[in-house]
Design goal:
Length: 409
């Protein structure tokens, strides 16, 4: 029998963690992630989840606990948001470089200064190059399903996975979510097999200083240098390009729910105007696409689910017929443009796809993004390109910039 409950995104994540049965959970509160950690503590207190719940003094310590526990063979979990994620920055690199399959939820929130407790995706975007897989969710069901998939992905390629979803927009909004039974999870998620152990019987040094070149260890074995270790992490990301879709397909086979692998599509078969983004903003764009189709504009949506590794092959295929591309994103690379837009342009270079790309920066610090605003922005862009405009543009939507053309409200 289907177990459907109306729950928040944070509770959906907590349900998934309970089903994955980690042995160690490290927790430190930060809005809007806090209720996720609270729900997990309740599961442990009630005996519904057998795990060590470690209350720490900072986000840096939270990830440090996960690194230590994962190193000695435990499946682990933590979660954070905003400046908490930034405080973890050093340890994000350490977890990835150590090839530890840690799963962490990033409940996306704007970063200070100035302070904001509201949503955008600048926090996770700023950690793009730390060596973590990043997957973005569009609704609460996808949050639950993706957290479970994340353990399978992480433990196959030995790369930590960050499951990202929009603060408040999803974390505190209640939606129907189907919760699978534990028997199904046991079929999908094999027991964790760590690649390192610390035991008194076989003492080893973990993560010593690496030299630039390969050299023999004390036993005469030729070992990799620093650069080889970096290459192997990159090679694992390349492997993840197939691991992520395979994990999604296997989940779909068991549950009937397929959220896509690296990307998801909505009415793209004949789309001349393609809207794209990550997370809930891409989901909102599907409603905008329906309205545009009612107006006679063939619109579709491509949701970028995996931001790292970037789905370069998938986007090159799905955007091939597009005449106009509109990117909506809740982050910005200062001095240039939105980070998703830059990566998209780079992935399309040399493919023969020359459709103009308009980049709309939206919803920073929780500023409301209405469907009508997405429709108007996409319509203006589509008509401008139809009139012969070929320039790529970056426009701040619903933001006072002092220029009339960009202050669309």
């Amino acid at each position: 029998m289907n177990n459907v409950r109306i729950i928040t995104g944070n509770e959906a994540a907590a349900q998934a963690v309970k089903l994955a049965k980690p042995g160690v959970i490290a927790a430190y509160p930060i809005t809007p992630q806090t209720s996720l950690a609270e729900v997990l503590s309740e599961y442990i207190e009630k005996g519904e989840l057998k795990a060590e719940y470690v209350r720490v003094e900072s986000e840096h310590s939270s990830l440090t606990v996960c690194i230590s526990a994962s190193t000695v063979g435990a499946r682990v979990f933590t979660a954070t948001s905003s400046n908490g994620l930034l405080y973890m920055h050093e340890q994000l690199h350490w977890a990835a470089g150590s090839r530890l399959p840690i799963v962490m939820c990033c409940v996306n929130r704007g970063v200070g200064a100035p302070w904001s407790i509201f949503n955008d995706q600048q926090d996770s975007f700023s950690q793009r190059d730390t060596g973590w897989i990043q997957i973005y969710c569009r609704d609460n069901q996808e949050i639950l399903d993706t957290v479970i998939q994340a353990y399978r992905i992480a433990e196959e390629v030995y790369i930590p996975v960050m499951v990202c979803y929009d603060g408040f927009t999803l974390s505190h909004t209640m939606m129907p979510v189907e919760i699978p039974d534990s028997g199904l999870i046991e079929k999908y998620l094999p027991p964790y097999k760590p690649h390192t152990f610390l035991t008194s019987d076989d003492p080893v040094t973990i993560n010593p200083v690496f030299f630039p070149y390969r050299r023999e260890n004390s036993k005469g074995v030729l070992c990799d240098g620093y650069m080889e270790m970096r290459y192997k992490l990159h090679a694992a990301f390349e492997k993840a390009r197939t691991t992520i879709p395979e994990a999604s397909k296997a989940w779909a086979k068991l549950t009937g729910r397929d959220h896509g692998g690296m990307i998801w599509e909505y009415k793209t078969e004949d789309a001349e105007l393609v809207l794209t983004g990550m997370g809930s903003i891409a989901n909102e764009a599907t409603v905008a696409a329906d309205i545009l189709r009612d107006e006679g504009i063939k619109a579709g949506v491509v949701g970028i689910r995996a931001f790292r590794p970037f789905p370069k092959e998938e986007v090159a295929q799905v955007f091939r017929k597009a005449q106009v591309i509109v990117v909506f994103e809740k982050c910005f690379s200062y001095g240039y443009e939105g980070g998703l837009c830059s990566d998209l342009k780079a992935s399309l270079y040399g493919t023969g796809i020359t459709a103009p790309i308009h980049n709309y920066i939206v919803g920073l610090g929780g500023r409301d993004v209405k469907t009508g605003e997405l429709v108007e922005a996409a319509r203006v862009t589509f008509n401008a390109v139809g009139s012969g405009e070929t320039d790529n543009k970056t426009i701040w939507l619903n933001c006072y910039t002092g220029t009339e053309a960009e202050d669309r409200k």
